[in-house]
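Working notes for the structural subgroup meeting. M.R. asked for a predicted model of this chain before we commit to crystallization trials. I am recording the input and output together here so anyone reviewing the notebook later can reproduce the run.

Input as submitted:
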Amino acid sequence: MTETIDAYFDRLGQAARTAAQAIARAGTAQKNAALRAIADALDAARPDLTAANEHDLQAAHAAGLSPALIDRLTLSPKVIDAMIEGLEQIAGLPDPVGEIRELRQRPSGIQVGRMRVPLGVVGIIYESRPNVTVDAAALCLKAGNAAILRGGKEAIHSNQAIARCVQQGLAAAQLPATVVQVIERTERELVTRLVSSPQYVDVIVPRGGKGLIEAVAQAAKVPVIKHLDGNCHVYVHAAAKPEWVVPIVENAKTHRYGVCNAAETLLIDEAVAPRYLPEIGAMLARHGVEMRCCPKAWSLLHAAPQVPAELLKPATEADWATEYLAPILAIRVVTGLDDAIDHIARYSSHHTEAIITEDYSAAMRFLREVDSASVMVNASTRFADGFEYGLGAEIGISTDKFHARGPVGLEGLTSEKWIVLGHGTIRR
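Returned structure, recorded in C-alpha cell form:
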C-alpha cells in the first residue's frame, strides 16, 4: 500500500530534525570531505546525469515548456562542471559555524558576544533547475543545516540522479543520509506540508517563478527567504564612459534571458541618449531583442537605420514593472540622476540595479539611495550571483530586509546567538 502523504512527510521531517543535530555537531573537515566526495560522485556519474536529464528534457519538449524553462532544466557539461566547481569552492570557504564575534568585557565582569550557529532544517522548493539540488545541498551542509529539497516534477529524473551522488558523498564522509533529503514524490500537497510544518522546518527558501513564490509566501507558517521579481535596471548616466556603455547593456540583457539578474529596463540620460541609443538599438537588434520605448526613446531608435521598425513598440505603464525573462527590454529616456532614482524606486523589484558613470558623486548617490539587494557601478547586473560574489554558490536571492539580503550563501543560512562568559560571576 502506498504511504500516505502525511505519513511520508512526517517520516522525512522527523529524520531531518534528527539529522540537523548530527550535522550541527560535524566538524569542518568532515563537512568538507562530504562536499568533495559529492563532487567526485558527480564527476563519475556524468553519463547517468546526462541520461536522466535527457529523459526530463524529452518530457519538457513534449509538454511544450518555454525555451527559458528548458534552458534552466538542461544539465549541459558546462552546468555539471559548474556544480562541481561550486562544491569545491564551498569546501574551500571558511566555516561560519561557531565563529564568535564582538566579544566585549562588561563592567559586571562578564564577556558578551555572538556565536554563529546553523538555522536547523532548511526546506528548499524550486522549479526546473536541477543544479539547485547540488547548490542547496552543499550550502546547507557546510552551514551545518539539514535540508529537505523539493524540486519540480519536470526535473524529477535529474534531481534523483543528483540525489544519489549526494547520498554517496554523505556516506563517504560518514554523515547520515538524511542530512539531505530530496523528495521523490510529486504531489502538490507535499509543498503545503513543507511550508506549514514549523515542528520540522525552520526556514523555507523558494526558487522559481513569481507564482510559486507568492503561493509559498501566502501558505507558509515557517519564515520564508524570498524574492518575487527580478525587474533589474541599467542606468546610463550623462558621464558614462563611452566604451563601457554598449558592452554592459549587452551583457546585462542578452547574456541570458531567463534569469532573475538580467536587465529588464534601460534608463538613459537625455544628455547622452542621441549619442548612445542608436548604437544600443543596433546591438539589441542583432540579438533580436524587442524594444518597448518611451516616446523619446522611440523617436531616436526609429530614426536609427540599423534598428528594424518591427522591433520597436511603445511602452505601456505595465512594461516598466515587468520582468520579461525574454528578449524584450523596456527603454526610457530620463532627465537625470534624480529621475532615474525615482523611476527605480517606483518600479523596481529591489533585486539589482546598475549605473554606468565616471562621476564619483553620482555613483555614490546611486549606491546610497537605490534601495535594492545589489547595487552596482560600471558592472553588468549579471554579476548578482552567489558564485560571482565568492559565496561558492547561492541558495537563492533575497529581496527581504532581514538577516539575508541579496545572494544567500553560507552566512545567510546561519543565525547568531548571544553567548556570555563568566568566572563565577553573579549579578548584583
